[in-house]
Amino acid sequence: MGVFTPFKKFLAWLDVVTGWYPAEMSMEERNLVRKIDVMVLGYCCLAFFTKYLDISALSNAYISGMKDDLDLYGNRLNYVNAVYQVGYCMFQIPSNIIITRLPSQYYLPTAEVMWGVFTLGTAFVKNYNQLLALRFFVGFSATACYVGCLHIVNCWYKKVELGRRNAIYFSAMPLGTMIAGYIQGALINVHTGGLKPWQWLFVVCAIITIPVAVFGYFFFPDVPEKTTSRWFTEREKKLAFERLQGDGFERSKGLSWKLVGRVMKAWQFWTFVWMGNLFWLAPYGGVAGTPFQLWLQGLKQYPGGPAKYSTDTVNNLGTVTSVVSIPAALLAAVYSDWRRKRWDMMLFAGILMLVGNVMLVVWDLSFSALFAAFMLLGISNGPANLVVVWAAETFAHDLEARAITLATINATNCALYLVIPLGAWQIQDAPRFFAGYTTSLVMSAVQIVLIPVAVFFQRRDEKKFRELAIMAGIDPLADASEASVEIDREIKKHGGEIVVTNSVEIPTSLSEAYPIEHESDYRLQHVKEFESLEKGLH
């Protein structure tokens, strides 16, 4: 028995338990997806991890000496975070358009090198104004990371694979938050090299960040239709694109003013932009770090007595809301992939957010009850990433519209993260934050209402295109023939492109909905039906 045999057996068991690779997947495709998992998902997770490692370092440094050293009293911490968000928001949507044009295997790692350098510079700032300048450039250079990597991940995987991969990707965020807390806890008594513990935190974060960028330069393969990676064979490159086409994903349509019209008219854009922002903002009190940590820091052993927890304990204990969000994200993804639906786990997460925020608005509860409320926000933050998967699936037919929608969700979220903390989460209101928890409570209620709205539109589109299939002589639900699979793929792919002709709702152009180059069995077997339907359009 080889030394790696037990490990291989464990991975095989894990594959069966999680359904990581669908049972019907061929060995050739399975080997390809393994490569994608390592080079695409692996790099994106590492990049997202280092991004949140660097971001979270500020909150940990704040409670570990930076507040006193840089005179960050009053609402100054919020202003520092706001400047970061300004830099982060400025280039959000342009960056995601650029990433569809430029080689992402160079663009994304270069951005990571830049924010690693600026994070290192944060360790050597001498005053509040210098800190503001560095955090702006950290935000500006980190713009490409989250939404850029998110776009790339969603370009490589089939719909049945997206939930679990996006959950793994999302888990890099709380993992980065956790590790930043643990590193600061370990460095709390380190004063060597003329640097204080909070300064060493930024140095260590930068040391971790730069090698990840180097990994990206060598292994990250761009998107399937443009990859020139030496790590894929020509057959694998062809298979990577063909398997996505067969799942309803289409190649780039190019940039034009028509893109603006396609996005503005799509229900997916408006619904998921609102839903994404609400789901990401509602658990702020538990997952942003600062409110939860300041509550822990303000606890006393007895009224008027010494602090209940030391600084290093607050750094470590403050990570638990991130810890619980990781298994929550993974379990929600496995379940939603199995169900082939996203809405039910999002509804469950929304209810948890609502309950947690109600408890924090009430506030006059026991320590255990308040701690449980923060944990509910952490758990509910896990399934929240499914909004991205849902949006990517319903926009499978339009690469650029999908990229702009995901970028808009993130850009508007950044703008709200800039504005809302300055008004609702002012540091002088700690730890009660009544305005903040009330705002989150309202968001929790509204987001629950939006879920059935998205379900309604999605089911409406699928019903309309199934009517078209039956018109053409095929019932896509009747059997599992190649023709049924093909028409069902087109049903899912072209949701939203509907007009009304002779009381029957059909796509604006069958020749666009069923392109000749697909040479599908459906089109070949039903030429006469297509000819009659196409004539009926004119």
Helicity level: over 70%
Poorly predicted regions are 475-538
The general outline is globular
Order of helices and strands: HHHHHHHHHHHHHHHHHHHHHHEEHHH
Q: What is the CA-atom radius of gyration, in angstroms?
A: 25 Å
The average pLDDT is: 77
Q: Quick one: biggest sheet?
A: 2 strands, antiparallel
User: Could you give the distance between the termini?
Assistant: 69 Å
Description of the molecule:
Strand 1 and strand 2 form a beta hairpin. The protein has helices at 5-18, 27-69, 76-90, 92-98, 104-122, 128-141, 143-156, 159-186, 197-219, 234-245, 257-265, 267-281, 284-287, 290-298, 311-317, 320-339, 343-362, 367-381, 386-394, 399-424, 434-471, 482-493, 510-513, 521-525, 527-536, and strands spanning 498-501, 504-507. It is mainly alpha-helical and 538 residues long. 73% of the residues lie in helices and 1% in strands. The protein has 25 helices and 2 strands. Strands 1-2 form a two-stranded antiparallel ribbon. Helix 3 packs antiparallel against helix 20 (399-424).
